[in-house]
Amino acid sequence: MTRSLDGLVFVPVTDQAPGQVGRQTRFAYHEEGERIWAEYSGGDIVRGYLVGTRAGDTLDFRYVQLRSDSTTASGHCTSLVTELPDGRLRLEETWSWESQPGSGTSAVEQLPA
């Protein structure tokens, strides 16, 4: 499966820790060839961007975000694109901060049309 992410909006499945993405955060994805990028905001995130590449169903990108407390953070993430039973896409993410200690896993799912 290599369905395009271009124009799709994703939302986290669960809230993360304060100052990170949460259920109110929305990711608007774009894709052109092997290049991917997204803008995101909502909840504790005032503005965020991710940029990277796609090889098949694997995304590899860096992200940077401005939080509501005026701090910034950045990191690296790899995601696996999977399809849900209802046909929407899900990204299974493995991430690590580069601007502070910490790493983890999370998931975002495509908003229904």
Which labels suit this protein?
globular, Avidin-like, 8 strands, 8-stranded antiparallel barrel, 61% strand, 113 residues, 0% helix, N-acetylglutamate synthase, mainly beta
Polypeptide structure, described:
By secondary structure, this protein is mainly beta. It has one domain. 0% of the residues lie in helices and 61% in strands. The chain contains no helices and eight strands. An eight-stranded antiparallel barrel has the order 1-2-3-4-5-6-7-8. A hairpin with a 2-residue loop joins strand 3 and strand 4. The chain is globular. It starts with 8 loop residues before the first strand and ends with a strand. The model has no long low-confidence stretch (mean pLDDT 94).
What's the structural blueprint in terms of helices and strands?
Elements (H helix, E strand, L loop, with lengths): L8 E4 L13 E7 L2 E8 L2 E11 L2 E10 L4 E12 L5 E9 L5 E8 L3
Antiparallel strand pairs: 1-2, 1-8, 2-3, 3-4, 4-5, 5-6, 6-7, 7-8
Oligomer state equals single chain
Radius of gyration: 13 Å
Q: What is the H-and-E element order?
A: EEEEEEEE
Outline type = globular
Number of domains as seen in the coordinates: 1
Beta-strand residue percentage:
over 45%
Mean pLDDT: 94
- Going across the biggest sheet, name each strand in turn: 1-2-3-4-5-6-7-8
Structural class label: mainly beta
Largest sheet properties: 8 strands, antiparallel, barrel
Distance between the termini: 20 Å
Instruction: Give the tally of β-strands.
Output: 8
Percent range of helical residues: under 10%
Question: Uncertain segments of ≥5 residues (pLDDT<50)?
Answer: none
Number of helices: 0
